[in-house]
Amino acid sequence: MTKRVAANRQPSRAELERLLSADLRAITAHSDRVGRYYARQNDLSHGDFHALLHLMVAETAGTPLTPAQLSQRLDVSAAAITYLADRMIDAGHIRREPDAEDRRKSLLRLQDGSMALAHEFFRPLGEHVRASLAALPDRDLRSAHKVLTAMVAAMSAFESQLYAPAAESSAPAEKSSTAAPGRRRSTPSKPTKAKVDPATGSGARRRSAAR
């Protein structure tokens, strides 16, 4: 096969999936570097920036997060989230407000100024994206959106597997150690010591066996 034919050959399904995965990793790497720059410019710690990122994604989706949900997203304790939220509220980045659907809960929302600051910073990125996509027809963008939506769903499913409750993994061990309903678990009997006759020095068990 010549190089010309190899260059014109259509990639297989498996090759396309590998290319898409590589593209996604490249975007993730670039996003991480851009995010670190944004954090430095706005005096944000690494944890603060990721908290803002999760809150921004949730705001855009119309599903603001509770402190417990943000704790799960960042994989930190409830106490750590309380400290982080209090600090970011004092800095003017976020606010707490009651959950309209459950007044016992509160939601963490981005302040308008924080959202405007992010939009202003990332506006040039949007311009670069529009310029890069200008030559592509709308049908390609619709197809790309379907692909990215599917990849987000796959990543979400993998994340759910990684963070499955520990109780599920320990359930089989607990089940095997629990007696079946209605049946009493047998306990091993303790070995009995043979009684020794002071007169003969022989054990009582041996004597009874000889009878």
Please summarize what this structure is.
Residues 165-211 are annotated as: Disordered. By secondary structure, the protein is mainly α.
Structure notes:
It is a single chain. It contains 9 helices and 2 strands. Helices cover 65% and strands 5% of the residues. With 211 residues, it is mostly helical. Helix 4 (67-74) packs across helix 5 (78-90). The longest helix has 29 residues, at 13-41. It has helices at residues 3-8, 13-41, 46-61, 67-74, 78-90, 112-133, 138-162, 166-176, 204-210, and strands at residues 94-98, 106-110. The protein starts with a helix and ends with a helix. The model is unreliable at 1-5, 173-188, 198-202 and 204-211 (pLDDT under 50). Strand 1 and strand 2 form a beta hairpin. Among the domains are: 13-42; 45-112, Arc Repressor Mutant, subunit A, CATH 1.10.10.10; 124-164.
Notable traits:
211 residues, mainly alpha, Arc Repressor Mutant, subunit A, two-stranded antiparallel ribbon, disordered N terminus, DNA-binding
